[in-house]
Amino acid sequence: EHVARAYNAPLWETRPDVPDWMRNVAIVTTLHGQHYTGYIFNDYAKSLETMRWMATQIPADRVLVFLSSWDGRYYWDYPNYQVNERMGGAAGFKRLVDEGHRMGFHIMPMYGTNAANRRQAVWSRIADARTAKIDGDNMDLNWVDWDNDRHQEGWLSYMNPGVDSWRTWLTGRIADMIDRFGVDAYFLDIVGGWTNNTKADMHVGTRRMVMELRQRYPKVVCVGEMHYDALLEFIPMYHSGGGGAGGPFVQRHAKFFQHLSH
Questions:
Q1: What's the pTM?
Q2: What is the mean pLDDT of residues 35-41?
Q3: Cα torsion at 196, 201, 203, 204 (round to 10°)?
Q4: At what angle do helices 89-103 and 164-181 cross, to 10 degrees?
Q5: Residues 158 and 195: beta-carbon distance below 8 Å
Q6: Which of 93, 104, 209, 226 is least buried, going by the fewest C-beta atoms within 10 A?
Q7: Residue ranges in 78-223 assigned as alpha helix (H)
Q8: Phi and psi angles of residue 114, each rounded to the nearest 5 degrees, phi first
Q9: DSSP 3-state assignment of 214?
Q10: In angstroms, what CA-CA distances link 3 with 9, 86, 179, 231?
Q11: Is 125 helix (H, G, I), strand (E, B) or coil?
Q12: DSSP letter string over 7-69?
């Protein structure tokens, strides 16, 4: 109760940032698009085909469709966040969203809150937002082996959304997809990650971004991966967490769905 008061965490039943459709969701279904290697699991047409089948098994308005790697090579193409031509281009993605909406589905593309590939052309515009730890060493997002060579990849920087350049870029990419395609939600991967970077406060920057998007698009919901207590104020749903001894208390304020591995 102290934590809820200290961090202004609203109760789930009365949260103003939860639309009626989200209260009706029974399942979140991940449709994984393109692997880091470029192998395509589900292009936009195949995803839509799967959704048509899903609608025969469950009322579509009870499903939130989570589009991971909708934007091309998983994590490698971060942070461009553009529809992928090999997967069907803008026309294919629009068909996916529009027909999904007609069936009743709600659509949520994925974004990395704090991940950017230094080998992408945009890097020079956002490089100042690269996170350094408290003693000055660069903090990389280097804990995944994408290509199965038994060595974690080293080309991703951990980014700080408190720094203007990164927050502005990410906000713009999310807004572009809302404006062009009318998606219902956006997913912030690793939003529960925080480190003490003296360039800017990550929490303050994340809150500023989410609140700005909410002001511009009040019907579009922010969903995050993982949480820490202060995030409960402005993010109502999370991928992973919400269990353990504190689960009944946390879930007064937010709802959770789990990784496939769980």
A1: 0.97
A2: 95
A3: 170
A4: 70
A5: yes
A6: 104
A7: 89-103, 123-126, 164-181, 202-216
A8: -145, 40
A9: helix
A10: 8, 47, 36, 11
A11: helix
A12: TT---GGG-TTS-HHHHT--EEEEEE-B-TTS-BS--HHHHHHHHHHHTTTS-GGGEEEEEET
